Amino acid sequence: MKRYSFPVSERTGKSRTLQALWLAVANLSSLSVTLVLQAILCRYMTTSEYGTYSQVLYVYNTLLVVFSLGLPKAYSYYLARVSPEEGRDVVCKLNVLFLALASVFSCFLLWEAAPIARWLGNALLAEPLRLFAAAPLLLMPVMGVENILIVYGKSHLVAVYVTVSRLFMIACVVLPVVVFGAGVSGAVVGFVLSSLVSCLVGLKLSFIPFRNVSRVKTRLTVAELFRFSMPVFASGMYGFVISSSSQFFVSRYLGVEDFALFSNGYRELPLAGMVIGAVAGVLLPEFSRMSAAGADSSQFVRLWKAAVVKSSSVIYPLSVFCCVFAPEIICLLYGDGYREAAGLFRIVTVINLARIMPYAPVLFALGQGKAFARAHFATAVLIVGLDLWCVMAFPSLRAIAVIATACTLCCLFMLMMTTARLLRTSLAGLMPWRMLLIILLASAAACAAARLTVALTGMTHHLAVVSVGFAVCLLLYVPLSLRAGIRYVQLFGPVLSLIRPNRT
Predict the structure, then answer these.
(1) Cα 55 → chain centroid
(2) How far is 2 from 398, CA to CA, in rounded Å?
(3) Mean of the pLDDT values across residues 401-419?
(4) At what angle do helices 326-334 and 10-44 cross, to 10 degrees?
């Protein structure tokens, strides 16, 4: 393939940032609904009921990794490489595959609900799982709608779709619990009903980019799709083991109430995942195009560094704030009964200091999915072994949280080393270390001062402490960041130009 300099214009950069903005809006909407939903359910359900509902979602998310076979990423990878006419055919093929996989998934939940409940040590789990069995059949065929819209520059529709579907979900899940006292079964039935609406709307949106486009049969075969997806599937399986192994051991050996505490506390900062997810969603098709065009490694590094700086400028201040005000945040969200979860929240938030790099897009775009999978496999083996040893030797929620955090950081370090090698640079050249340190120090100084200010006022109300603390932190962080040379106007210029189109 002929190699040439792949131009990255200001316009292209603006487009990427704006797309990431719309994805961030979508993720923020999803996050807000999730937090509101959890806050309501924690207050209207017993700890046992909430733990059972959390286990239903845990089982679904676990098995989703298995039954999706890594295929969702195929939308972004292949649609960026073919014409819209062929793209329509690719989408049809993938949708049919997902429908078939979803049918198997739903049948599995129906038949194996009781054994799964016994395995997780909660006999009350079986019936909700059977009620939930219809959800995969509705949700899996539209797993690719967001990726489709992103590839064709319609990220604003992603924001609309996610917002509408999530708002409908919160109504369907909450009303049976709050109004009728239907408990876990009512919440699950409401979730399934909202899934039906998401399915119908998602199918409609997935073909909007192909309006007035004739379908042309692509040379892409099902076998080729699976060759691409298998490394993704393998890494997804290992990644899920890393993220959910601790939940399994807590559920199995420490009980459903400790599971409720752990599932609420040991949760990475959702806003961080929202930001990096939005960045990665935009970068995968971009890196795929650059790879197909023969772009050299220096161009990948420039784009990589730009993404890291933008991600960290949002993630670092939020992560430090959450560490400092963890008890008040947890109690505000879930009630005073979950205060113990604040320590778990602080432990897991440390991961956000490293999870600012979109490893997956660059590795998969360069055809290095196996390297991504190997790092996750090694980490999965490590965390399962250490978790098993922990629950046998000294069962403790905090010990399990520390093990999970340390193993995740090891995985991220391995991926950093792999990325540096592939892009023909060093660790020093891969990351903008000076800028990262400046952002971190400015965040720490502002949050420490905010904590001291709140303590001097004698405030105890959780909402007041969080609100005043955030306001003081923001007032201090802005001048500190400007003095340190962090220019948010330049970093997010495309967003500002959208808001004020007549300004540069």
Answers:
(1) 19
(2) 54
(3) 89
(4) 60
Q: At what angle do helices 297-324 and 433-457 cross, to 10 degrees?
A: 10
Task: List the structure tokens of 443.
Answer: 């965040």
Indicate the DSSP class of residue 336: G
Q: What is the 3-state secondary structure (H, E, C) of 205-259?
A: HHCHHHCCCCCCCCCCCHHHHHHHHHHHHHHHHHHHHHHHHHHHHHHHHHCHHHH
- 30 alpha carbon, distance to own chain's centre: 10
Please, is 88 exposed, middle or buried when counting C-beta atoms within 10 Å of its C-beta (0-12, 13-18, 19+)? buried
- The pLDDT > 70 percentage for the chain reads 87
**pLDDT tens for each residue of 237-269:** 777 777 778 888 887 888 777 888 888 888 877
Neighbour count for residue 223 (Cβ, 10 Å): 7
Give pLDDT, residue 496. Answer: 42
Q: Find, among 348, 303, 233, the residue nearest to 241 by Cα.
A: 233
Amino acid letter at 67? F
Nearest to 225 by CA among 371, 375, 63, 91: 91
Residue, of 196 and 264, whose pLDDT is higher? 196
Strands (E) located in 111-240: none
Neighbours of 224 (CB within 10 A): 13
471 pLDDT band, cuts 50/70/90, is very high
Mean pLDDT of the chain: 80
Which backbone phi and psi does 133 adopt, to 5 degrees? -60, -25
Q: Quick one: tokens of 222?
A: 């099902």
**The pLDDT of residue 499 is above 50:** no
pLDDT score recorded for residue 448: 93
- Taking Cα atoms as reference points, which of 332, 359, 329, 369 lies closest to residue 345? 329
pLDDT recorded at residue 324? 92
286, 16 Cβ separation under 8 angstroms = yes
